[in-house]
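Page 37, top half.
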Amino acid sequence: MTTITTAACARPPACDEPEFAALLADAVADEAPRVFAIVEEFGDRHDARIAAWGMAFPERAELVGIYRPLRMTLTAPESALPLFTRDNTQARLVWAAPAPETPDET
């Protein structure tokens, strides 16, 4: 499922609201990009900071910088590493762990 139309139609709903919400939640979970960070390590594990956040899609990765105006599309998350590696600074790709599920507050 990649298309959701908002156009009104004369047909009755395919299912009730809770079931439709569950279908949408499942579709989003199945198609969600993986979130990653590019972390700059200073020295030999002396210090580090997150330099950019990204989203990995099947065919590309999107990256947004934190400390400088930077936005780019890459073929893969690993392609960003050379851009953040300098003298005495090593770049690391760190995958964000999924957030723990919390019960709905209803």
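Page 37, bottom half:
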Amino acid sequence: MQYSPGQLRKAVGLSPEAYRHWKTVLPSLSSINGHSAKFLIGDILAIAILKRLTDICSIKIGSLSGISEALFDLCNSVSLDELEPLILLIDLKNNTCSTSRLLDKQISADVLIVIPLVVVIDELRADIMEMQNEYAQGQLILAMPSSSADHLVVSEGR
């Protein structure tokens, strides 16, 4: 399934202004242009992870541009089900990111950000399900013909 920019912003809680700024800073976002731009679930996961790093760790999005392409590639390389049990390892100094089942003792990074992907994926799934339910309800309301009961209420008002 593909998602529009509005759906991406809603799923991760990103304002239109922040989205516009992020498009100028992140190479993976700047390559997707126009109102008909479509995002995969892996793209949304990558944005959700970046948003977590900006919100929780107070890292400026510009500082994350170096790892963004690797993060987008990693998030789009396998399904959410395959990523869910893993932890994400981000090394900002070397601009790398990888996944692992366990924290490897052989890691030689100065500072390493560790993100359990199950938390991000669970929240993302819930937000997307809610968004899809809202969309389905809106479609149902639009598809329903006006009932005769509505017509009777108007007639009784005379």
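Margin note: Residues 5-144 form one domain.
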